[in-house]
Design brief:
Blueprint: H1 5-19, E1 23-31, E2 34-41, E3 44-51, E4 58-62, H2 74-83, E5 87-93, E6 99-107, E7 113-121, E8 128-132, E9 138-141, H3 177-186, H4 192-199, H5 205-215, H6 228-247, E10 252-256, E11 259-264, E12 276-279, H7 283-333, H8 336-347, E13 358-362, E14 371-375, H9 382-426, H10 430-441, H11 452-455, E15 464-467, E16 473-476, H12 480-490, E17 496-500, E18 508-511, H13 519-531, E19 541-547, E20 551-552, E21 563-564, E22 568-572, H14 576-580, E23 583-585
Antiparallel strand pairs: 1-2, 2-3, 3-4, 5-6, 6-7, 7-8, 8-9, 10-11, 10-12, 13-14, 15-16, 15-23, 16-18, 17-18, 17-19, 19-22, 20-21
């Protein structure tokens, strides 16, 4: 979700309570596009994060402190010069737009009290943090904008500050019925959802959809096609939502299943059916949780990109090698004809003369005794031609023996590499990524020398932990180290172990706990095994299950590799609903 004017309105209300009257004691710039203010108010200390990041611009109070650079950037030094030890006297929002103004009272060079403003523009790639003096002249900004980038609005020291263009949009508070209807008339070609975005400052698509939902109108319906009654319903839905915005904030993070998809400070009725929400006591706590999870996912994707690329290349390389070996195997299986040629030439050696290109001979091994044409080398005697074919036959037989071993070895490599790829697909934590990288670096596929850091033993991460509908604890490994933990240390003889048949995937363990494991729990665990495997998108996936006592890890086996006996097989079609229906324990063993 875009950090819209509604979220900013609620955040400013929260800031007013906690920050007005507070003194700015410290200013840091840990990132090139991020400022941190330490504000003291009485006995309370608040860390205020202000970010102009192009992807995630935001503002809120934070508990997570980043390491600061050894030398502060120039913008940080300017802020320290003008507002350090200043007192926050007011925090406002420009109209209902995504511009926050923090008014700070401090002393100038003549020891006179002046009020400067720190302006935080939360506007996607155009986000900025700007310091202006009492006459709204720019003292400095995080991002400089010259005339080559914008003719309308330059952001440079010494220039007059100009607010971002409003494009004839209006604040969403204090709108009268007549004004609302006039705006509807002006935006007749827009959809209902787009109307609210284009006509009002700070309204995001979510709010547009919510107003339409409460009005009983399709958000994709064209404004010009609305009846008079529908326009009245739309007005009433709009007033209802705006009234709720004014009255209180309801900070929630919204999930689709277990996937975080959005945040909101308004109760979004239109998402209630398919989504669930997690409430937070404050706007800042909600925003910090949301951006922390989002940043973590982004960092995981960025840090795993190189390893994923290496694995993809190795998988493709070994699959191609496997295809070539199978082609060689097919060619070797055809080697029996060479022996046949040798036998027939030997049987007819006195009927063949040197210099013949082809010998047409009766095939005594054919029930119909049909003739067969055998190519000959003209510079060789019949005996030499027979010997030539025998050598080709023997060579193919020897190659066939070696090919079987090469194919098995390459199949094992492909399986192992695909298990690492599957581990990357299942993992979400940086600690899990470090384990996968550590495993790869210590495998036969890494040709680079290990650094001291690489040689360090990894602190094991935790497997997924679920509780079945009947109260059984079920553990699911997300990488090979977790799989080894589940398959060598966590189970007891009477527990049940599961794994997708002949396909890379997670090791799954049902802890019996002295109880009989029912068919229902077995099917739930089978769904987990299939979902957390390469066969996630398939139907009727075969899943092996067995008592833990029949499971064994051979000496010197690769991580995640085990052997087992006495297994049974069930067939499941993995579904996300089946996974999400089970209670998940965040902290595992």
């Amino acid at each position: 979700m875009a950090y819209d004017g509604v979220t900013l309105y609620h955040l400013i209300e929260e800031f007013k309570t906690l920050l007005i009257g507070g003194r700015i004691r410290k200013i840091y710039q840990p990132e090139i596009d991020e400022i941190r203010l330490l504000v003291n108010l009485g006995n309370q200390k608040h860390h205020v994060l202000l970010s102009a990041n192009a992807s995630n611009p935001r503002a809120y109070m934070t508990e997570k402190i980043k390491e600061n650079p050894s030398a502060p950037p120039s913008f940080c030094m300017v802020l320290r010069k003008y507002i350090l030890n200043g007192t926050i006297v007011d925090i406002t929002q420009h109209e209902t737009d995504r511009v926050m103004e923090i008014s700070i009272s401090s002393k100038n060079d003549f020891n006179e009290t002046v009020v400067r403003k720190l302006l935080v523009e939360i506007m996607g790639r155009n986000s900025n943090i700007i310091l202006v003096d009492e006459s709204m002249k720019i003292l400095d900004s995080m991002k400089k904008v010259g005339s080559t980038s914008s003719r309308y609005r330059q952001i440079l020291p010494g220039r007059d500050y100009i607010y971002p263009p409003e494009n004839n949009r209006h604040g969403f508070f204090n709108i009268e019925t007549e004004k609302f209807n006039a705006l509807l008339a002006n935006y007749g070609e827009a959809t209902v959802e787009k109307f609210f975005i284009q006509a009002f400052l700070g309204i995001s698509p979510n709010i547009g959809k919510e107003v339409a939902f409460r009005s009983g109108i399709d958000p994709n319906y064209r404004v010009a096609d609305l009846s008079k009654k529908q326009k009245q319903f739309l007005w009433e839905g709009f007033i209802q939502v705006i009234t709720e915005i004014e009255q209180q904030a309801e900070p929630v993070i919204i999930y689709l299943g277990r996937k975080i998809v959005d945040f909101s400070t308004v109760d979004l009725h239109y998402l209630r059916t398919d989504h669930r929400s997690e409430s937070y006591p404050s706007i800042s706590e909600m925003l910090e949780a949301y951006y922390f999870k989002r940043d973590k996912a982004l960092r995981f994707k960025t840090r795993s990109a190189n390893l994923r690329q290496q694995l993809d290349i190795l998988v493709k390389k070994n699959i191609k090698k496997l295809d070539n070996l199978h082609q060689d195997m097919d060619a070797s299986h055809k080697s029996e004809k060479f022996k046949l040629y040798g036998d027939l030439i030997t049987a007819n050696i006195y009927a063949i003369e040197k210099g013949q290109e082809i010998a047409t001979l009766i095939n005594y091994y054919d029930p119909d005794c049909q003739t067969i044409d055998i190519p000959l080398k003209v510079n060789r005697t019949p005996a030499q031609n027979a010997q030539h074919y025998y050598k080709k036959y023997n060579k193919s037989k020897i190659a066939l023996k070696h090919l079987v071993g090469y194919i098995l070895e390459t199949e094992e490599k492909v399986y192992y590499l695909e298990s690492l790829v599957n581990s990357l697909d299942q993992s979400t934590e940086l600690a899990e990524l470090d384990e996968i990288r550590h495993e790869f670096l210590h495998s036969e596929f890494n040709k680079k020398a290990l650094s001291k850091e690489d040689k360090k033993k990894q602190t094991p991460s935790k497997p997924l932990h679920f509780i079945s509908s009947e109260g059984f604890h079920i553990f699911v490994g997300k990488n090979n180290y977790q799989n080894d933990l589940i398959s060598t240390k966590m189970g007891k003889s009477e527990d049940c172990w599961l794994h997708v048949k002949d396909t890379p995937g997670s090791h799954v363990l049902i802890v019996a706990g002295g109880r009989f494991i029912t068919e229902k729990t077995l099917l739930e665990a089978g769904n987990l095994a299939a979902w957390y495997s390469k066969s996630r998108g398939s139907s009727n996936v075969p899943v092996d299950y067995l008592e833990f006592k029949y499971l064994k890890k051979p000496n010197k086996a690769k991580p995640g590799m085990v052997i087992f006996t006495n297994q049974n097989t069930m067939y499941v079609t993995p579904t996300l609903d089946g996974v999400e229906a089970m209670e998940a324990i965040i902290q595992s063993i």
